[in-house]
């Protein structure tokens, strides 16, 4: 991964897509498990806020609109447990992974537990990884182009706004990149697309100039859900904001993925 610090508004993004055996070609892009993309592109400014959508049930995603799922620790990894239901329903998922948590072995185990060939699941998921906030903004900006060759119904993004709390990035640059990413997400939701953001903002202590990043993300979402551990050590989902639904449920997943808190 490379980033030219002299041109922070024009990041050089290295993008790799995996979970797919089928290569899809388009000018300037190579899609497979081994190739990468390196290209400069300027991101676009933000646009108007999102409209609210109908609330969903726990451990599901809205059919359309944006939902934010957050909590401490390894919360982005819990995005995997939303995938089986989506994939069994025949949905395609574009996964923009800023937290670097996408795990083919975990997906293979989830497929095996449901007696589904892993190859069937893998053909329905495309992964693009980002390692800096600028790269994540770039991937979000390119999502419409990705969706032209891989028509997914679901967009998952991890580590937003987590990557934008990087202390090596100046406050102004982080704010510009974050606002651009949020604007591109709003335009993505204008499509018939379900968008899910998985974040662990509680593990960071952002500067005063960045403290409102997560609040702005929440304000743009139709639904906000929080992960926290119950007394039995299992992760629970609490709906913190939705027009008609408020509930807390436990889920019997492997809670070792969800770190204990004191």
Describe this structure in words.
With 262 residues, the protein is an alpha/beta fold. The protein has one domain: Rossmann fold. It is built from 6 helices and 10 strands. It has an 8-stranded mixed sheet with strand order 5-4-6-7-3-8-9-10. A two-stranded antiparallel sheet has the order 1-2. Helix 4 (133-149) runs parallel beside helix 5 (171-189). The relative contact order is 0.21.
Main sheet makeup: 8 strands, mixed
Q: Indicate the overall shape.
A: globular
Number of domains: 1
Helix content range = 10-25%
Strand content: 15-25%
Distance between the termini: 36 Å
Q: What's the order of the H and E elements? A: EEEHEHHEHEHEHEEE
From the coordinates shown, what is the CATH architecture?
3-Layer(aba) Sandwich
Strand order, largest beta sheet: 5-4-6-7-3-8-9-10
Rg: 18 Å
Low-confidence stretches: 1-55, 244-262
Tell how many strands the DSSP assignment holds.
Answer: 10
Can you give keywords for this protein?
eight-stranded mixed sheet; 262 residues; two-stranded antiparallel sheet; 10 strands; Rossmann fold; alpha/beta; 25% helix; disordered N terminus
Give a short synopsis of this structure:
The chain is an alpha/beta fold. The protein is 25% helix and 20% strand.
